[in-house]
Amino acid sequence: MEAFAPLIAGFETALSFENLVFVFIGVLLGTLIGMLPGIGPINGIAILIPITFALDVNPTTMLILFAGIYYGSQYGNSISAILLNVPGTASSVATTLDGYEMAKRGRAGPALAMSAIASFIGGTLAIFGLVFLAPALAQFAIRFGPAEYFALIVFTFTTISALTGKNFVKGLIATAIGLVIASIGLDPGTGAPRFTFGQLPLYDGIDFVSATIGLFAVAEVFQLLEQSRVGGEVRTKIGRAMINARELAGSFWVMIRSAVSGFLIGTLPGAGATIAAFLAYSNEQRWVDKDRTFGQGDVRGVAAPESANNAAVSGAMIPLLTLGVPGSGTTAVMLAALLALNLNPGPLFIEQQPDLFWGLVASMYIGNVMLLVLNLPLVGLFIRVLLIPRWVLAPAVAVIGYVAVYSVNGSVFDLMVMTALGVLGYLLRKINVPIAPIILALVLGPMMETNLRRALAQAQGDPSVLVGSPITIVLWILVAASVVLPLLTRRSALEAVAPPARSRDDEDAPPLND
Amino acid sequence: MKRLVVTLLATAAFGLGAAFAQPSNVQCIAPADPGGGWDFTCRTIAPVLTDLGLIDGQVRTQNMAGAGGGVAFTHVVGQQGDNQDLIVAASTATTTRLAQGQFPDVTADDVRWIGAVGADFGVIGVAPDSEYDSLTELMDEWSADPGALTVVGGSAVGGWDHLKVLLAAQSAGVDDVEQIQYVSFSSGGQAILEVTGGRADVFTGDISEALPQIEAGNLKVVAVLSDERLSALPDVPTAQEQGIDAVGANWRGFYVPAGVSEERFQYWADALEQLEASDAFAEIREQNGLAPFARFGDDMEQFVLDQVDDIAELSARISQ
Fold it and tell me: What residues in B contact A325, CB-CB < 8 Å?
């Protein structure tokens, strides 16, 4: 019980009028920022830093605001992912797979409602993790070195088969394209320019935000241009706004499992919500998708990534505050803000700043409740977006994306990159190459490369370091299981054409990473 | 009421009189995204110029991220060459990249360096249970075998954290400094975890990023790379005290376009000198873990050109 004493004190902090106002502003802004492609929580928070300094808000309130924006954006980003097939941030790419399919089938309402509920479950479960496990998990994170990260990323890459369905080869092609795009820019280890052709803006590589807007939103505009000449437009039904009890019950354990795995991955600095969401999606696909409905508008395919990415965002507070190591771009900006206020997060931070830490934790609980209350009733409003003809909607989304990207970086070059990727995305759609693996490769490719190089460099080039710890060995077993098991089950399914032979119980499924 | 009017008139008159000499509408370019060190330099240091009455009006901060400052540098050289009211945040990272030719077609001579107002000094540390207790012991190990101990830090290979160790090793007389193994991480904090977790031997970084882990006992600092001991770590000897003549100052300062008038260059140098001496700035410096480090005007230009030469020479050795 004594674990609750500081938490209760935290609620006293979080329930002050000022903090309640700021957590509300935070989650509201976060929802909007997540919803609008192109801004993202990193820029949203960065833009607010000077304003909070000027307003002289106290550090606890500032952190409550920023955290609200961060997890609020994880609610918001699924809205555009589901309704428009344009993920607001990388962590909602996995949500597009089933979310957008549901919207196309007139089930946008249940998809959005499920996304809000799953986000709530993931977010609140992770807060329990924060309360009870923060110090222990910081130790776990210290044991995660480059070799462990490399194995984790390879494991995440095995999710590609889950993202591509039948067209596995096309999924690999998409992955290769993503890896090529990811290799543009300064070499992460040595700073040598690669594929930059002397163009300075290319030195930083292709920004994920520009890539997403280009590949998803701009490509959509091109496709519409073509369709309008061909004529005919499929009108989307909007359907009911709520989720029913059966859908909710069927997703319950999906959300719980995804929250646990998402939280654990979130606590690793350098993994983050994107990996958490993709892994949860593919794990659940292996675990519960017996009728192979994932990818065709299965509500559980929305529940898994949404629960995981919210849990990961809460988990990411652990390395930020207890190790002073940011696990994502957003937490890096939050760290910079804390440092500028002379607050140095580190191993002693919870002891030294109990009001701040517990106030933040309590505010996250309150914020998640606010988000649920805010988002569920709005589902009915959001799905009306689908009544807007797509020839109005898609260009509007693209314009918002262009304006957002330009206003943040002030670079025309980014806009040209977005347009070029839009053309690429359009061509790939024509030949049915999936887009999600490109984004996955774009996010994971550089991480995989740097961690492999670091691991080998630290071991003076000895490759045995890659299997040198218990954590790596567990991860490699998971990799092997997730590559081999589907092959075996596919064969047994082929051998026994008759349905009774279907003996795939939950016990046979590969173990979840834990 | 009367006094208020008088004050207002006096302020107005002073403002008018000063307007002829003072920069107005000053823009500060932060060559990175919001939230980083350069952004901080523009947003918290530059406004002190207004508070001290050294410039008219407010400083506008513009973020121009890209290529580690290269986008802003080439923009200033190419398109803002005679802007008299522009300052750009810079640090040792800027001179390192200039020295290594990472900004295509431009050099340190293409702008004017008006001053440095503070610095983050380097530290070299090992795991708390490490057998090494001094910088000299590390250097002895490297003298025997330069590949013996792996170094980790938060900058890229060839970046400032890497170079600091090599500069120290060079002054300690280690022969093949280019063979010292350095692995880069995305932040100093992450690099410290490698040392704490026993996967690497030596950490190199700036004091500000290492302090929380030092206080928690996760890192044992064997030397600070400053002229004098740092107030934050009074018990840790400098490298110089250990007989190794190495100072690693990651300074924070500004440059302006090359086309500014000589008067304006002097004005900026004097303004920064007054800023550096002010109480308001002392507080900011204290809050942000910066140590005093002051170079202005011609001094600053000479310092930057020397630093660029030193780094260029060392970088050429690493890349061989």
Answer: 187, 189-190, 193
